[in-house]
Design goal:
The complex is a heterodimer of chains A (about 130) and B (about 270).
Chain A: H1 3-14, H2 26-30, H3 41-50, H4 54-57, H5 70-74, H6 81-93, H7 106-109, H8 116-126
Helix pairs in contact in A: 1-6, 3-6
Chain B: E1 2-7, H1 17-29, E2 32-36, H2 58-69, E3 73-76, H3 79-94, H4 96-106, E4 117-120, H5 121-129, H6 131-137, E5 146-149, H7 159-162, H8 172-179, E6 183-184, H9 198-201, H10 203-219, E7 224-227, H11 230-238, E8 245-248, H12 249-256
Parallel strand pairs in B: 1-2, 1-3, 3-4, 5-6, 5-7, 7-8
Helix pairs in contact in B: 1-12, 2-3, 5-8, 6-8
């Protein structure tokens, strides 16, 4: 996909109006995963707006978002950064062979207290 | 006895069985019979926000359609199920292309358009039963207990869709705690994320999130924390350590209503 198509695809999937961003940084200030991310929520929005998306796709940051929606809630412009991060992650994991978490990984991650909810949610977030 | 369609969810039938059983027992005492949805399927734990996702939303769509046809609403106890069902329902209401695709695939007749109402057990307690009636039903007031309500993210956000409570200054759990005779503890991190599913991808990151929530409540003097979410309970118990008990809200509810044998620490 060329840059423009990729941007349009992400905007279409997320429904996010990335161009509304006024760079206030409130999303990143609210993000519980901030310190674990290479690219932060406001950078996702900015780089998608610029069409500079490959570096986001290659970054571990797409797996750090908790979809807690703090950024969505606190954005004064209704940009919904979490949906942008999710769209970039989906573009990556929808490729054949790109599932982040595989069923065979689960036994190694399992412990007796782990709720079913943890497994189904992680599978939903990290696999197609 | 008011009958209401009930969506338990995967974890309430397994690791969090008490959450299911105690919620139903308290409901019966307060005049509600939870009628389990026929052949419900796991909601998937998270709503996939991408508009082109259809398959991941079908389990919720089926439950919602069943609820529409059986009394018009569905109650949940698990925060994640509540969030997924309610966000899926909103997609039916606001995205006609999505609604049409699902109805064609499911052969729903008449097509489902988001008619059902999704409510959390907390909302029934607050809006229908009322905390005065709950207070009157309490047999063993939890006097002297300092309980920190943990909302997390799934009950509150996105607030435009969930409309559960104020996303930044919620009160329903505090009022619930007061009705049970205990003292609610206010602390800064009550509506911040516990680390959620990140525990499987990056446990150290989840540990930092949970520890921040827990220490914030301890700092304010809590001796107990309550949650409606099995994954929050897991993270706060396994990925953080502190001098306070993490319990399901249904657990303290059952205790106060005298539904637990052996009283206080049963």
């Amino acid at each position: 996909m060329n840059k423009q198509d990729l941007k349009e695809e992400i905007v279409r999937m997320s429904g996010s109006a990335v161009e509304k961003c006024m760079r206030c940084g409130k999303c990143s200030a609210s993000c519980p995963s901030y310190e674990d991310m290479e690219y932060h929520p406001h950078e996702f929005v900015y780089l998608v707006e610029k069409g500079d998306i490959e570096k986001l796709m290659a970054s571990e940051s797409i797996y750090k978002c908790l979809t807690c929606f703090a950024c969505v809630e606190r954005c004064p412009r209704g940009v919904e950064p979490a949906k942008v991060v999710e769209a970039v992650r989906l573009i990556v994991i929808r490729e054949q062979g790109m599932n982040r978490l595989k069923p065979d990984d689960i036994p190694g991650l399992w412990d007796k207290d782990l709720p079913q909810q943890a497994i189904v949610t992680a599978m939903r977030k990290y696999t197609k | 006895m008011t009958k209401i369609a009930y969506y338990p969810g995967c974890t309430l039938k397994n690791k969090a069985r008490a959450l299911d059983e105690e919620a139903r027992a308290a409901a019966r005492l307060l005049g509600y019979e939870f009628e389990e949805i026929d052949e419900w399927q796991c909601c998937g734990g998270a709503f996939t926000t991408s508009r082109d996702e259809i398959a991941t939303k079908l389990a919720a769509a089926r439950a919602l359609t069943w609820a529409r046809d059986h009394g018009g609403r569905v109650v949940t106890v698990c925060s994640a199920c509540y969030n997924v069902l309610k966000q899926t329902n909103a997609a039916f209401r606001t995205d006609s292309e999505f609604a049409a695709k699902v109805s064609r695939y499911e052969k729903t007749d008449p097509p489902y358009r988001g008619e059902a109402e999704v409510v959390h057990w907390f909302e029934l307690l607050r809006d229908e039963i009322g905390f005065d009636k709950l207070r009157a039903a309490v047999k063993k007031p939890l006097k002297g207990r300092k309980i920190a309500p943990y909302y997390g993210c799934l009950l509150l956000r996105p607030s435009e869709t969930l409309a559960f409570d104020s996303p930044e200054n919620p009160t329903v759990m505090e009022d619930f705690i007061r009705a049970l005779g205990a003292e609610p503890v206010r602390y800064a991190m009550r509506n911040e994320c516990c680390g959620g599913y990140l525990t499987l991808e990056d446990r150290d990151a989840a540990k930092k999130r949970s520890a921040a929530v827990l220490s914030s409540a301890v700092e304010m003097g809590a001796d107990c924390m309550i949650t409606a979410c099995p994954l929050c309970l897991y993270n706060l118990t396994k990925n953080a350590a502190g001098p306070l008990e993490i319990r399901y809200f249904t657990d303290v509810l059952a205790e106060a209503l005298g539904l637990k044998e052996g009283g206080e620490n049963a």
